[in-house]
From TrEMBL:
Residues 8-190 form the Ketoreductase domain. Keywords: NADP, Oxidoreductase. Belongs to the short-chain dehydrogenases/reductases (SDR) family. One of its GO terms (molecular function) is oxidoreductase activity, acting on the CH-OH group of donors, NAD or NADP as acceptor. This is NAD(P)-binding protein. It comes from Polyplosphaeria fusca. PANTHER family: (3R)-3-HYDROXYACYL-COA DEHYDROGENASE (PTHR42760:SF83), SHORT-CHAIN DEHYDROGENASES/REDUCTASES FAMILY MEMBER (PTHR42760). It comes from the Eukaryota.
Length: 259
């Protein structure tokens, strides 16, 4: 396999598990150097081992909702690895099904500060380090395209990410920096509440798309690698669904993947 990302640095948030971890492993296999962060440092170290000892890396535990922590991590990445070429904003908080009248300010703040403000913080901090040919991929969700009862806050953050990304595509495009979005569907990750619940919950997710299976983190990672690569050079502001062909409405939050 050609090392098409050799001499390139990829920054990934939420790299400690799931889609973030799979993308880190994928990019390492393509020769990239990695800047990986997560709120769980033990998980991050496990990801680092999977990426191989020879892959140049910078690791740190970071709360993406903290502008100070994000700036420290981004600046340290540029210093240690010499550059930043691609950014994968993957860190996020899972939804919980809550009627709006029962939704607390704390729940709103938690999801908005991580899912939306976190992407804002990382993107803003990274822009001064990005040059022509760089790219950003943000993780929205099928819930950023379709509403879901009792998921108002989560859907708000994921819809907002698509709007933010399209604005960045227009703002950064003239500088040769592309921004795209992936919208995963039901993905088999350890934190997927439906997977934990098992039984009928998993069956409903499997039957909820035309391919008749759950997606894997690797299914998403492969698309992210494509969006970073030269093959997608004319894609900017694109929203890519990775859901196996969702049937009808999106399932409730208790059976939703970590997106």
């Amino acid at each position: 396999m050609p090392l098409q990302f050799q001499d390139r640095v990829v920054l990934i948030t939420g790299a400690g598990s799931g889609i973030g971890r799979a993308t880190a492993v994928k990019m390492a296999s393509l020769g990239a150097s990695l800047a990986l962060c997560d709120i769980n440092y033990d998980n991050l170290e496990s990801t680092s081992k999977l990426c191989g000892a020879t892959t140049p890396k910078h690791l740190d535990d970071v709360d993406v909702s903290s502008n100070q922590e994000v700036r420290k991590f981004v600046d340290a990445t540029a210093t240690k690895l010499g550059r930043i070429d691609h950014v994968f904003n993957c860190a996020g908080v899972n939804p919980t099904s809550i009627p709006l009248e029962d939704t607390t300010d704390e729940y709103w703040d938690k999801l908005v500060n991580t899912n939306l403000k976190g992407v804002f913080n990382v993107t803003r901090a990274a822009i001064p380090h990005l040059k022509s040919g760089a790219s950003i991929v943000n993780v929205s969700s099928i819930s950023g395209l379709r509403g879901s009862a009792q998921q108002a806050v989560y859907c708000t953050t994921k819809y907002g990410l698509i709007g933010f990304s399209k604005c960045m595509a227009l703002e950064l495009g003239p500088r040769g920096i592309r921004t795209n979005v992936v919208c995963p569907g039901y993905i088999d990750t350890p934190t997927n509440a439906g997977i934990v619940k098992g039984g009928e919950a998993v069956e409903r997710m499997v039957n909820g798309n035309a391919l008749g299976r759950l997606g894997t983190p690797e299914d998403v990672a492969d698309v992210v690698a494509f969006l970073f690569g030269e093959e997608s050079r004319y894609m900017n502001g694109s929203v890519v669904e990775i859901d196996g062909g969702i049937k009808g409405t999106v399932l409730g939050g208790q059976e939703r993947a970590k997106l």
